[in-house]
Amino acid sequence: MVKTSTIARSGPSRATRPARKAAEASPADGSQFLRALGERVRVARARRGMSRKILAQDSGVSERYLAQLESGEGNVSVLLLRQIAQALSLPVTDLLREENGQPVELSLILQFLHRLPPARLGAVREQLRQQFGESPAQRRQRIALIGLRGAGKSTLGARIARELDVPFVELDREIEREAGTGLSEIFLLYGQAGYRRYERRALEKVLERHERCVIATGGSIVSEPGTYDLLLSACYTVWLRADPEEHMARVVAQGDTRPMAGNVEAMDDLRRILAGRGVLYGQADAVVDTAGRTVEQSLKELKRAVRV
Q: Can you spell out the DSSP letters for 217-238?
């Protein structure tokens, strides 16, 4: 698991930022992004049959500025890009996305989803998963344990993997292998974004390598939508839940007193993290409450949850 000065790392401290030269975008990367951005604006304008003059009038952005933007030379501000996107009737995220060549069908689906009330999105996602995703029976071949540090993912994961006679995978160790260095160094050198990239790559390789396994994930994996969706789609996920006080006590019992060192607000921070992630953890296929239970009791509940 990620060992930090608090139970869940929200990102590297300011003191580490100067050391992150390797994570900074190169001038070439920036130029490539601006060219892709300009091309997306030009294509969107052409699809709508808009001249540059009309787009300038509708957006309030000068023709000269638009010409620079479309040629890949304009370092556009967020507010001006928002005006351009509104004039093109597009979400600004469509212009800022990293990948190119988004299919028209995907654009139409996204626009349809944007029109739905937020309360209905969960039902749509579940219907898509049921119709096009792997079945629960298929996903049960891979069991993924989620939850905050101290929930028992490593202990219970190793135990149930032995009983199922399948590999036990700690995703943090796979991330370190992928990066060729420890978790602390990953955050120090590449920051939160770099860690997320390695986390996604490591999970993809685990899924390619193992048709059957038990995976113990990092507590913050639910905060990265793409990676978490991949986990939910390919694995039978179980949230190992515990009270904040129990999370803290277990971490300290493991010999790591850093969460409490010099941080009188550690428990308040932990409660806020759990409150913020509760809805995300709740998307798991099953929930096992480990609070106030022994390892054997929790293991019994976990086996019942995954129907062993």
A: PPTTGGGSHHHHHHHHHHSEEE
What would the two tokens of residue 125 be? 């996602």
**Higher per-residue pLDDT: 171 or 44:** 171
Contact 20, 191 (CB under 8 A): yes
Q: For the domain 27-98, what is the CATH code?
A: 1.10.260.40
CA distance to 171, 182, 200, 229, per residue, from 175 (Å)? 6, 8, 9, 18
Whether CATH 3.30.450.40 fits 124-305: no
59: three-class secondary structure by DSSP? helix
The domain locations on the chain are 27-98, 124-305
Which uninterrupted H or E stretch holds 144? Answer: strand 142-146
Say how many C-beta atoms besides its own lie within 10 A of residue 209's C-beta: 11
Q: How far apart are CA 308 and CA 305, in angstroms?
A: 8
Condensed to tens digits (0 to 9), the pLDDT of residues 34-75 reads 888 888 898 888 877 788 888 999 899 999 999 999 998 877
Indicate whether 195 pLDDT > 80. yes
pLDDT digit string, tens, across residues 113-144 = 878 888 888 888 778 877 777 777 788 899 99
